[in-house]
Specification:
The complex is a heterodimer of chains A (122) and B (928). Chain A is built from 5 helices and 5 strands, in the order βαβαβαβαβα. Chain A has 122 residues and is an alpha/beta fold. The longest helix of chain A is centred in the N-terminal third of the chain and has 13 residues. The radius of gyration of chain B is 47 Å and the shape is elongated. The chains are: A alpha/beta (122), B mainly alpha (928). Chain A: GO terms for molecular function: DNA binding.
Chain lengths: 122, 928
């Protein structure tokens, strides 16, 4: 069965590029444009991995991450945080909230794929 | 009801009440809960200044000279208002050195000299005894008056009356007994008398109430108020002169002298020194006393003139002595109760003065006259006695009786010679002789013992010759020849026209010559030689009294003494038990051990001496301590060196304190500056972080699309074209972001170029709408313009205003609903400028976001489609442009009903004035 990945980002062009990349690699891709939508889609669709942008409208990535991690049903969901703010504090905050990985924008598509595969145990 | 038994009973009851209050005050003091630790009680105790001389005599004086009674109260008022710092310094000095009296004060200042203390005591006793006589006279004559009730009989006291039949003799005895009970009740002969002060404060209240009661009775009972009295005056032309400002024959010199004299008296009269300085519990009380005491003086003087005028008119031609009006007016109206109250008030005024004055004088007589003599001639005898505190009290009690008897004798012999006021002024002039030695001693280091002695003697002699002896002559004691012909027939030596000085009253005359002699001798003799060791030491203690410093005396003592010897010495005068407690307390505070073999340090020696000083005066204390300690005399050079070091040390420590304060302030400033920097840093960090974020976001897409294209050469053409198009638009976004960031930075830093010129806003708007028409066409939106013609021009930068308009229009376009969008642009005229509004029918902006959107990088719209075209800088830049041009930019919106962005711009003329000549309208002529 194909692994299911949710892309949560409010930057349309970034979503387009990552969606194209992941579909080409054979993943099933879901898209959310803000934090609330992301949370709802995780609960509804149970993706294996969430690519979570930090700066999103309505609910930021940190809050989404925290909400996901406080829900025992969703403990199997892997979380990869993506942020354009590359400061160390941001990274450690994300990891402290229970994210499984962290990537700074802009990133190389190869590295992103490698990280995605690693988190999915492939 | 005014028979002798009633008077005696009322008097004794009143005195009993005073005693009860005094007993209570002492008891509270023993318990450590001082009754008199109150600024009000302190101020009231100062009112002991008002004696029977005030109570009865003011009216007498007003009856002769109108408001001539006033200067005697103006002096104290001036001292309290302007000279309180002298009093403060005296209080500090007295407390630091446990000084017991004014004689002790002067003696201590000039090297603890027995001779000076003795001289001051003699001057004080000679000067004050007539004053005490005055009180006896007042009390006894009022008793005699009341006993004559209902008749008002002015009886000239018969000189042949035997002492045993003389009522004033018994009054003197009762007062002596009372003073002994008040002043020397305690076995420990210390300087403070809390109970007495409490009783004196009560007396001040009683005499004030009594006097005001008579004043109200006369003014509003006998007459119909102040105005009525003065109306009645019209029928008594002989009294008119009393109401002129300064009655003729008195003169400004007389006023001036009286003010100076009373100002000095309120500082240096022994009783004033006692209550204001020695008995002061807390120097902060001085602040309230500075206005409360003058207020008291004002209150007790308000009715003086009405009573005097009322009495003169009421008793016109009856030969009633004006000094008795306060009493005789109520008597004449059969107001027995009021008359009794007045009598008690007068008794208060008299007893208050006598008690305090006698206690102060007896302390001086004991410490500065008798003790030094005893110490000199019976040193061995004293040394054998184990406990001398009983002897001390005995001496004081004896002195009290003696002083009162002296007063009585003076009253018997000279009492009829002068009116009350004259006797009081003679006393004032005597104590005024202390002024140069005291004030000079507190502010001039150069004064010496010799100078003080010479000055006091000279002043005293001149006072005696020009004031006291003439008063004797006028009493018929002395042949009056020397008054008219001068001493030894030398005309220049006529006591009332000394060296030909005439034309001024005798008080001014005495004041002039005695002060000339006193100050001249004090300064002249002091300058003859530099101060000696003891004088220099004490000069420092007194002159520097207001500076924060440790006990300087302890620094200036070198020698050997045993703790046990000192304690035994102190015990002999204060009682062994008290000495034991005091020494144990001191050693506990400052370290050291009690015991036979222990050596005392300089501080303990100083402590013992100050304890002794409180009981027997500083000069005797010095002698006694020297007798048990082996002292090494210091040379004047050593003393000067030590004093110099001490003062340098003080300077250094002040300098150090100042530096430390500066350092603290600097640290604080640094911390604040650092906080500001950190805040700036944080702001910069936030902006950098925002900018970084805004830059990284397009870069992310560009990189991702580029890599996708690179890694997949066989990508479908539509995808390839789409991705390349997105890459291009993202690079455009990056460029825009960079430009706007730089633009904003330029505007904010004030380095932006502004091309100000008068322009037509309508034209600017039309141009901007034309430039954005494509955007609206894409959204199929309708643009509605309402731009009136012929509006005034405004001053602005054309390009910048187009930038603002483009921003507002493209913002509106961004949020328009597809297909049904409407945008309305309105230009309107305000009172002082023009207003532009851009209204859309988009989703609107929530109230909490309406200010947020003007912050950098704060986009609140969440439409994914619109986002890439915004940088989050357009509105902040627009607002800054409008504000720079003197206008305002804001938004009004109801969510769901669209938003209206508005900005105003002032008219050209106003703005031109504000902008000045830097931005010339001519410069942009070709740019339109």
């Amino acid at each position: 069965m194909n692994k299911k990945i949710l892309i949560a980002d409010d930057e349309q062009n970034i979503v387009i590029s990552i969606e194209f990349l992941l579909r080409r690699e054979g993943f099933e891709v879901l898209v959310a444009g803000d934090g609330e939508e992301a949370l709802a889609k995780v609960r509804g669709e149970r993706p294996d991995l969430v690519l979570l942008d930090v700066m999103m409208p309505k609910m930021n990535g940190f809050d989404v991450c925290q909400a996901l991690r406080s829900d025992p049903d969703l403990s199997a969901t892997r979380i990869l945080m993506l942020t354009a703010k590359g400061r160390d504090t941001e990274v450690s905050k994300g990891l402290g909230l229970g994210a499984d990985g962290y990537m700074t924008k802009p990133f190389s598509t190869k590295e992103l794929l490698a990280e995605v595969r690693k988190l999915l145990g492939m | 009801m005014l028979q002798a038994p009633v008077l005696i009973a009322a008097s004794l009851l009143y005195l009993g009440l005073l005693f009860a209050v005094a007993w209570w005050g002492d008891r509270r003091a023993d318990q450590g809960r001082s009754l008199i630790d109150s600024a009000t009680i302190y101020a009231l105790s100062m009112a002991v200044y008002c004696t029977t001389w005030t109570f009865y005599g003011s009216v007498g004086r007003a009856a002769v000279s109108g408001i001539g009674f006033l200067p005697v109260y103006l002096g104290p008022t001036l001292v309290m208002a302007l000279g309180w710092f002298i009093l403060l310094k005296m209080i500090r000095i007295v407390k630091a050195n446990r000084i017991t009296s004014i004689a002790d004060f002067i003696s201590s200042r000039y090297g603890k000299s027995h001779l000076l203390g003795g001289l001051v005591t003699i001057i004080a006793v000679v000067g004050i005894v007539p004053y005490i006589a005055l009180q006896l006279k007042a009390v006894s004559s009022t008793v005699a008056l009341l006993l004559g009730y209902p008749d008002i009989v002015m009886l000239p006291r018969s000189p042949t009356m035997s002492v045993a039949a003389d009522i004033s003799f018994y009054i003197a005895l009762i007062l002596a007994a009372f003073t002994i009970v008040f002043g020397t009740r305690h076995l420990d002969a210390t300087e403070r008398h809390e109970g007495m002060v409490a009783a004196i404060a009560l007396e001040s209240v009683v005499k004030l109430v009594a006097f005001i009661a008579v004043g109200v009775f006369v003014t509003y009972g006998l007459y119909g108020g102040f105005g009525d009295i003065f109306e009645h005056l019209a029928t008594h032309p002989e009294l008119q002169r009393l109401t002129t400002a300064i009655p003729s024959g008195q003169g400004y010199t007389g006023w001036f002298s009286l003010i100076v004299l009373s100002a000095l008296a309120v500082l240096f009269l022994p009783r004033q020194f006692q209550v204001a300085v020695v008995e002061n519990v807390n120097e902060s009380h001085l602040r309230r006393a500075a206005w409360l005491f003058p207020l008291y003086l004002l209150l007790i003087n308000i009715f003086v003139l009405p009573i005097a005028l009322g009495g003169l008119m009421h008793f016109a031609g009856e030969g009633v002595d004006a000094d008795t009006f306060v009493l005789t007016l109520p008597m004449s109206q059969r107001q027995e109760g009021l008359a009794l109250l007045v009598f008690i008030g007068g008794l208060s005024a008299g007893t208050g003065m006598v008690i305090v004055e006698t206690i102060a004088l007896s302390t001086m007589v004991c410490n500065d006259l008798v003790m030094p003599l005893l110490l000199r001639h019976r040193r061995l005898g004293l040394a054998e006695s184990k406990d001398l505190s009983g002897l001390l009290l005995g001496i004081r009690r004896g002195a009290i009786v003696l002083i009162l008897l002296l007063g009585y004798c003076y009253f018997r012999l000279a009492g009829e010679a002068y009116a009350l006021v004259a006797i009081g002024l003679i006393s004032f002039a005597a104590v005024a002789q202390f002024a140069p030695a005291i004030i000079g001693g507190m502010y001039w280091r150069g004064g010496t013992r010799g100078g003080a002695l010479a000055g006091l003697l000279a002043g005293f002699v001149v006072w005696g010759y020009t004031l006291l002896l003439p008063s004797f002559a006028k009493s018929g004691w002395l042949p009056g020849d020397f008054l008219t012909q001068g001493l030894f027939g030398i005309e220049l030596l006529r006591p009332l026209q000394l060296f030909g000085l005439s034309g001024i009253d005798e008080i001014s005359h005495c004041l002039f010559w005695s002060f000339l002699a006193n100050i001249g001798a004090y300064v002249g003799v002091s300058l003859l030689r530099p101060p000696m060791v003891a004088e220099a030491t004490q000069a420092t203690v007194f002159v520097d009294a207001l500076q924060e410093t440790g006990p300087i005396g302890a620094v200036l003592w070198r020698g050997r003494a045993k703790v046990s010897d000192l304690q035994e010495l102190v015990g002999r005068f204060l009682g062994p038990a008290r000495a034991e407690v005091a020494f144990a307390g001191h050693l506990r505070r400052h370290g050291g051990r009690q015991g036979d073999k222990q050596e005392a340090d300089a501080r303990l020696v100083q402590f013992a001496e100050s304890l002794l000083a409180g009981a027997i005066g500083s000069a005797s204390a010095r002698v006694m301590v020297a007798s048990v300690a082996k002292e090494e005399p210091l040379s004047i050079e050593e003393v000067m060196h030590i004093l110099d070091e001490a003062s340098q040390l003080r300077t250094y420590s002040r300098e150090l304190e100042r530096k430390s304060r500066e350092l603290t302030a600097a640290t604080l400033e640094l911390r604040e500056a650092n906080e500001r920097l950190q805040e700036l840093d944080r702001v910069k960090d936030d902006i950098m972080s925002s900018v970084t974020h805004e830059l990284r976001t397009p870069l992310t897409s560009i990189r991702a699309f580029s890599e996708l294209l690179r890694d997949d050469p066989r990508m479908h053409l539509p995808d390839r074209e789409r991705f390349l198009g997105l890459i291009v638009s993202e690079t455009e976004r990056l460029t825009r972001l960079i430009n706007q960031t730089l633009d904003l930075a330029k505007i904010e830093s004030g380095r932006a170029d502004w091309n100000a010129c008068e322009l037509d806003l309508k034209e600017v708007i039309e141009q901007s709408v034309a430039a954005t028409s494509q955007l609206f066409r894409e959204k199929e939106a309708h643009v509605d313009l309402d731009l009136p013609d012929n509006l005034p021009q405004i001053m602005g930068d054309r390009d910048r205003l187009i930038q603002v308009m483009l921003n507002l229009l493209s913002n509106a376009a961004k949020f328009l609903p597809p297909g049904s969008g409407r945008v309305r642009v309105v230009l309107s005229l305000l009172a002082d400028g023009l207003q532009v509004s851009v209204t859309d029918n988009g989703p609107g902006i929530r109230p909490q976001d309406q200010e947020l959107i003007f912050e950098k990088f704060r986009q609140v719209g969440d439409t994914m489609t619109a986002k890439p075209s915004g940088t989050g800088l357009g509105l902040p830049i627009s607002r800054r442009i409008v504000e720079h041009l003197g206008g305002r930019l804001w938004v009004e919106s109801v969510p769901g009903e669209g938003a209206t962005f508005l900005f105003t711009l002032p008219f050209a003329l106003q703005h031109e004035l504000a902008v000045g000549q830097h931005e010339q309208p001519g410069q942009c002529g070709g740019r339109g």
